[in-house]
UniProtKB/TrEMBL annotation:
Keywords: Monooxygenase, Oxidoreductase. Pfam families: ydhR. It comes from Litoreibacter meonggei. SUPFAM superfamilies: Dimeric alpha+beta barrel. GO terms for molecular function: monooxygenase activity. This is Putative monooxygenase ydhR. The keyword Kinase does not apply.
Length: 263
């Protein structure tokens, strides 16, 4: 069983200005996250071997309030630290279209592992970068059937085309997923131009509704986020949150952390 001891930065770094985020990211060694680079890679490889055949029982969504082109993100260094976290299974890196925010969707072995990551490791990372952050935890037990029906690769969906973009959605409602009308919604989603797959997301404790939708192109992703999805939420009389991400710029980083979206 994986150690429950979190591996993170001590949290005493001087906060960085947003202009210095890139420099700060590049300057933070893996050792600053609580262990040496060699130990990090060894632990990461062990964790990945243990969990690469496991299904994620929980997801984590993260987003740093920073504007950093992904080619300036030291993802190799960060991947070693992320992969060493207890219960880690995979990560799909997310780079904000237009704003270059940095984040991702992670698979974890349990909700407990996800909460540890969101309450300990990631806040310490954001603190060292000197930026605010967003995190969400989702329990996959209730959404597995709905996600599998939308060809989600985390739930056995066969990837035939790699994504060009991702759309993250979250609706400000509290609906236990067993009461969500996903069987009615999925056929509608399948008519959306360019949609490749959808992972349904149900907020831990909050029961918010949303997902990560993979699209073939950025243009089709934008059309969904800007035109189609707002009509759905208007019918629900609910506020909502959408983000569009370029899936091509993060491909290598995501492959390195076992993202199931790439061939």
């Amino acid at each position: 069983m994986a150690s429950r001891v979190p591996r993170h930065a001590p949290g005493n770094a001087v906060p960085l200005s947003r202009r210095k985020v890139a420099t700060g990211m590049a300057a933070i060694p893996v050792a600053a996250l609580g262990f040496s680079a060699l130990a990090a890679r060894s632990t990461a490889q062990t964790n990945q071997k243990e969990h690469q055949t496991m299904r994620a029982n929980a997801f984590v969504y993260t987003e740093l309030q920073a504007s950093l082109p992904f080619n300036n993100v030291p993802w190799q260094k960060l991947n070693a630290a992320i992969a060493a976290q207890p219960g880690f299974i995979d990560k799909t890196w997310l780079s904000g279209l237009g704003n270059n925010s940095v984040g991702g969707l992670y698979g974890f072995a349990s909700v407990e592992d996800s909460l540890l990551y969101c309450t300990d490791f990631f806040p310490a990372l954001a603190r060292d970068f000197g930026v605010a952050q967003t995190t969400r935890v989702f329990d996959n037990q209730a959404t597995a059937e709905a996600s599998a029906a939308m060809d989600a690769p985390h739930f056995g969906g066969h990837v035939t085309s790699e994504p060009g973009a991702f759309v993250y959605t979250e609706v400000q409602v509290s609906v236990p997923f067993e009461k969500a009308p996903w069987r009615d919604r999925n056929p509608v989603l399948r008519t959306q131009k360019g949609l490749l797959s959808k992972v349904w997301l149900s907020g831990h404790n909050t029961h918010t509704l949303g997902g990560l939708d993979a699209f073939d192109t950025v243009e089709n992703a934008l059309d969904f986020a800007i035109n189609a999805f707002p009509k759905t939420t208007a019918a629900m009389n609910a506020a909502f949150y959408t983000r569009v991400f370029d899936a091509r710029v993060t491909e290598d980083a995501s492959r390195d952390l076992n993202s199931p979206y790439y061939l």
